[in-house]
Design a protein that fits this description.
Blueprint lengths: L1 E7 L5 H16 L3 E7 L7 H8 L24 E4 L2 H6 L8 E4 L10 H24 L17
Parallel strand pairs: 1-2, 1-3, 3-4
Keywords: Arsenical resistance
Protein name: Protein tyrosine phosphatase
Organism: Deinococcus phoenicis
């Protein structure tokens, strides 16, 4: 089984959405993937993240904000993906077999629901491509492959 960890600063929005989206993309293609998310510090899962994920049928109600040390076997992941620059800088060193990736996304916090939806959709596109590459036995995207720029308040 392939293990994936998605890291952000507070594990309250982007990493939580990416975790659910990655897990769902893997489920759809029948890929045996263990997905976790964590933050460099724990806070709470933001209500706007729950709202925009519920709009696409994914429930974050059972999700909790956690740190790297709250996930099972925190030093044993095949892929560690940071989704914000702060987490990329604070990310600990991993053994040689771990592939570290950085897919930075805009922080939707404080923005409109349209901004949250835009970030959710960008996360969905990127992490679906990640899962599809794994499923096909192809190299995963090495960096965030942004679609058209989204400028919403």
């Amino acid at each position: 089984m392939t293990r994936v960890l998605i890291l952000c600063t507070h594990n309250s929005a982007r990493s939580q959405m990416a975790e659910a989206l990655t897990r769902e993309a893997a489920r759809k293609v029948g890929l045996d993937l263990e997905v976790h998310s964590a933050g460099t510090e724990a806070t709470r899962v933001k209500d706007d993240a729950k709202t925009v994920m519920a709009e696409i049928g994914l429930n974050l109600d059972g999700h909790t904000s956690k740190t790297l040390y709250d996930v099972p076997d925190p030093q044993n992941f095949d892929y560690v993906v940071t989704v914000c620059d702060s987490a990329a800088e604070a990310c600990p060193v991993y053994p040689g077999r771990t592939t570290r990736l950085h897919y930075p996304f805009m922080d939707p916090s404080g923005g409109s629901l349209d901004r949250w939806r835009a970030v959710r959709d960008q996360l969905a596109e990127q992490f679906t491509a990640f899962v599809q590459a794994l499923e096909a036995g192809q190299p995963v995207p090495p960096a965030y492959q942004a679609g058209p720029a989204v400028h919403v308040a």
